[in-house]
DNA sequence: GCAGTTCGTGACAGCGTTTTCATGCACCGT
DNA sequence: ACGGTGCATGAAAACGCTGTCACGAACTGC
């Protein structure tokens, strides 16, 4: 910066003012400085600047994985937003318990970011508390944390509406396939189950535990087993509501392999509206991770500028039922029976 | 840090030495300092440290998108590696041309990272040159840049082996489905085509332009059109080699919808070995983005520690043909004809 | 016992910015 | 013409750390 100052024949103060766009610089000096900076290929050091301003210009993001549609999409909408605000995006990937404890022990984001976005974690109270002491605004994304700014979709309502869609088609035996993931990472599992149960109750149907099965995402074998359990019930379901599209697709795969036509014999409904849902013409309950990412980014930027702002509210985003080709009325005999 | 020094009854120099693990600190003093640091919940400011050391502790990563299996997997293996080395991961997402020009104009990573990993970009000479002047080691990942450290899989060999697999099964009419993506982002498209052509030539077969079609990934309609073009040829192919698993799956989908059994009537071979390939029992040519990410991270760390090291070499990773259930010998009449 | 070494420690000068404060200058109204 | 205002600029003090250098103490070998 001293070089730029010398070349432009001004002091470093003026260079600093110019480069930050402060208005108290005369036009001709500004031009000279900008020219000099360009010629010298100069860029201010964020480190040095942050040392005195106390702001790092970084936004930290804590994610359980990057290998998922949700994270990819959310971050892809978050990143340009931060970039436009002149912020850097710092990613912490915490795939397993070891990394997790190490993260919360060392808290590498401390003093190294102006805000932290925590994606999809089921945090313990202790962990939440340690983040409270981080000295920066923390936004909880895709999860519900009492008393802290949180952003999430209304999973209960989504599952409620999805189940109603199946009920309205005439289904009475509706199964729910839960997704059990790596422990400690919340994928809104319970809320979706609750929505499903609410819909059934609302329709005056009993809750049958046999109709709720679980599997892991990406586990073909597990999905087959779960479907197998449903197919071997005394009174098998005519519709399957899977908590995640991937599992729904696996279910369709299994069913069709066994010559059970979807949706003629069994309807399948997913949740998420991943691209894969479109490929398979899968009826699903859509959520928008892009919206989540954007909202989270905007909230974070707000909180950085005004940490005491009244943003401790929860932002709840909507879901939408998207009927495609895998949901249909149940087969005749079932409807009449 | 002054607080810690005071509490431990030592100077800041000693605190700094202790916290950096230098050996010239007596055990009892070390214990006192560590205790004090813990009690005060102290963490050194990377910004301040980097100001004097000249190292930022950041590794910047330039990616075209995060919404892809490849990026997600590569970064997921890269991240823990950097974390273990005490480095932060800084992500720049450049989804479109506007962001791209803005990135290369402002080069936000300048002075803000110790190394840059550029993923999957087809850079212009001008862009490469501007990265050369960045003052930090730049590693090109999943692309081939002359004279700079690059890491990529041997796409030519992969496609060659994949095509040979089809040839060995008895296929003689083998189509290739190219993927045309967002312009300027290299997905090794050409190299895979070259490998395919090499295999045909090697087998003494002519190159038929009609057998090479193109589509966009994720575009069901486009995939259908591409397959349609192949099916309406005078002599349609008995095997389809798609440059990406997603497209291969779309092809299978289209074929089966038209009652053309895969692999009985038409074999389909993919490339990448994404999780989706496993679900669909898709035969494919596997590459390992996890390995790529790891190699890239290790190389970057090497170059950071010793920028002049002899690492200007290219690291070429292997591919593996994984036969699953979508490749089989061509139907009888074809083989005998 | 004395010079020479080694070892642990502290004082202090930077690192490259921002920011405060002071300064000089032009401009205003009277 | 003169003091007051406002504006563009510069000098210099932080910011929080690291690294160099110097210093004293505790050793070593003769």
UniProtKB/TrEMBL annotation, chains A, B:
Question: Gene3D superfamilies from the entry?
Answer: 3.40.50.2300, lambda repressor-like DNA-binding domains
What SUPFAM superfamilies does this protein's entry cite? lambda repressor-like DNA-binding domains, Periplasmic binding protein-like I
- For the HTH lacI-type domain, which residue ranges apply? 1-53
The protein's matches in PROSITE patterns, at most eight in alphabetical order, are given as: HTH_LACI_2
Q: Which InterPro entries match?
A: HTH_LacI (IPR000843), LacI/GalR-like_sensor (IPR046335), Lambda_DNA-bd_dom_sf (IPR010982), Peripla_BP_I (IPR028082)
Q: Does the keyword DNA-binding apply?
A: yes
Keyword field: DNA-binding, Transcription, Transcription regulation
Which GO molecular function annotation, any one, does this entry have? Answer: DNA-binding transcription factor activity
| Superkingdom of origin organism | Bacteria
What protein does this entry describe?
LacI family transcriptional regulator
This protein's species is: Streptomyces curacoi
